[in-house]
Amino acid sequence: MTMLEHRPTSPVPGWLPGATAPRTDPAPLLPDPSPVRMLGTDELKDQDPALLLDLYRRLVVGRRYNQQATTLTKQGRLAVYPSSTGQEACEVAAATVLRPGDWLFPSYRDTLAVVGRGVDPLEALTLLRGNAHTGYDPLATRTAPLCTPLATQAPHAVGLAHAARLAGDPVVALAMMGDGGTSEGDFHEALNFAAVLNAPVVFLVQNNGYAISVPLAKQSAAPTLAHKAVGYGMRGRLVDGNDVVAVHQVLAEAMEQARTGGGPTLVEALTYRLEAHTNADDATRYRGSDEVTAWQEHDPLVLMERRLRAMDLLDDATAAEASEAAETLAARMRAEFHAEPVLDPMSLFQHVYAHPTPQLLEQQHQLAAELAAEAER
Amino acid sequence: MTPTRTVTMAQALNTALRDAMREDASVHLLGEDVGRLGGVFRITDGLAAEFGEQRCLDTPLAEAGILGTAIGMAMYGLRPVVEMQFDAFAYPAMEQLVSHVAKMRNRTAGKLPLPITVRIPYGGGIGGVEHHSDSSEAYYAATPGLHVVTPATAADAYGLLRASIASDDPVVFLEPKRLYWSKADLDTTSAVEPIGRAVLRRPGRSAVLITYGPSLPVCLEAAEAAVAEGWDLAVLDLRSLVPFDDATVENVVRSVGRAVVVHESTGFGGTGAEIAARVSERCFHHLAAPVLRVTGFDIPYPAPMLEHHHLPGVDRILDAVAKLQWED
């Protein structure tokens, strides 16, 4: 007997008729108690080798991207970088389950997913470099801007998915957030709207253990974050977030379910950020080195490489190829970011309104005059 | 039906929504109670029946969720019109409004404009209990990226709402709820004006009352009463706070030389402060007196049995006019 089975499904004494139609069986919605794992299981043999190698390559390039971006912050070339080192499996899987028409709604730590989606790696960093808010065209790659306010992009994903469904388009929206984001009101409102509207949307929570410094135990008293789905009437899935094949598999299933009218899913990926929250954070103040070391043993890249080599899918030559692609990208990042960006001060007034207000036009003239005077000096 | 008929402001708004939905299939309404019930003020009455429950969508009761969902809908090409049930109930959606609705065009270098209209019944004077009478226009007007408009007549309610829905920019559409039942002639065939223009409701040569929304009828009444005092007061209805019609305001103030700004929301840091500053900066040498403000007190909106002490009435307006240094 599941715990909600006592809820009445038909009029009984004391139960008023009306629009209430409680779900009768919450069991299929509950997440499995242990996270889904694929690496190290027999199921891996059924996976497409080309997919496995693709995921591996993306992990290698993603890890290098994270490292290079972090280095650029130390050199003052990037204003800030919230590294996803240790979480690359989630980022890679998110990017690879999306079809061209689908939409990605990333949060600020999800640059890798954005790049994996096809956004130029340098354009994806303009927000964090500080030269523009969103350096890429969201429509061209169906990728919403990197979102800084926590989980506020989740209802956007719901609305877009809902509108797409109304239009009859087979579009799924994938919204990404961290464990801290699940405490925000917008997260809960988004889940509720998604379930009520049966919107084709998938929520991916990367539970990396800390919201800056606050550990999960102080963030939520739920058995898992995936359990939060059940109260809204949607499926919750728990997955090993460092197992790239498992994240890919679970997300792909959720996407398919959404695409075929089965409604939304909340996926919790258990992972760990091996770096601090951002370069401005000191992680040694809130977590011990033993913990970090333990997670380093469970590094998504190490897990995948070890497995693929054991399966004879990966040889030195292929590994070297991936490494070379990663170095090429890193070199491009260095070259581009060591050059000063070209900025146009007059762009401040662009794109505030479709047609600037008279007040903005006045201020625009003011700045133009200031710039002209500066040029004469 | 002849194009001109006498309607309430509520009916004018309902007609505007209906006409917009008939003309453009991308116009979708969403909010709490907008469907079957037709909204607590019946502004969406009959629209679910005519356009279906998807285009007039009853949502879960969550304002951030409502507006956030509308953002995603707009990103996919729809033109959402959101109803916030009461002024103070819109605050949970403030983050969506300020951080996303107002900024999305700018954040994405023009790639994701959000043509969303957020309808908010606002203001007091209807005996509403706590949290049902706020005037929140200053918050919205201080947010770059939003247009902020507020009609004071049935005709403007129709015209401004049509213009707001047609606008490619997000508009906070403030409905003065105490004027919902005021009646006027409405001609829906007359051209819809672009938003951003003030209109002179009453010419006058002594001073001008600059106002908007729920305070317009009060100002017109004050102007009538002022005749007995020997003052010929002009009354200017701003209609739009953002964009602000500096040109019309300047013309009127320069021609009369004295100005009082009247609104019912609190004064400190309010829109009246902005208007008075703009007028002083632009018309200083044409002014015979400082620009005065008549506003609600700087208090949380009072209990309904006391609200008449808070809301600017005719006497308070005339007191201000009396202070305009007539013996200079």
TrEMBL record, chain A:
Swiss-Prot/TrEMBL keywords: Oxidoreductase, Thiamine pyrophosphate
Keyword Oxidoreductase set for record: yes
Catalytic activity of the protein: N(6)-[(R)-lipoyl]-L-lysyl-[protein] + 3-methyl-2-oxobutanoate + H(+) = N(6)-[(R)-S(8)-2-methylpropanoyldihydrolipoyl]-L-lysyl-[protein] + CO2
Pfam families, alphabetized: E1_dh
GO molecular function: branched-chain 2-oxo acid dehydrogenase activity; magnesium ion binding
E.C. no: 1.2.4.4
Superkingdom as given in the UniProt entry: Bacteria
Protein name (database record): 2-oxoisovalerate dehydrogenase subunit alpha
Organism: Kitasatospora acidiphila
Automatic annotation (TrEMBL), chain B:
Pfam families, per the entry: Transket_pyr, Transketolase_C
EC number: 1.2.4.4
GO biological process: branched-chain amino acid catabolic process; response to nutrient
Required cofactor(s): thiamine diphosphate
Keyword Oxidoreductase: yes
Keyword Membrane carried by entry: no
CDD domains: TPP_PYR_E1-PDHc-beta_like
Keywords: Oxidoreductase
Enzyme class: oxidoreductase
All copies of domain Transketolase-like pyrimidine-binding, residue ranges: 7-182
Gene Ontology MF term list: branched-chain 2-oxo acid dehydrogenase activity; magnesium ion binding
Source taxon at top rank: Bacteria
InterPro entries documented for this protein: THDP-binding, Transketo_C/PFOR_II, Transketolase-like_Pyr-bd, Transketolase_C
Protein name: 3-methyl-2-oxobutanoate dehydrogenase (2-methylpropanoyl-transferring)
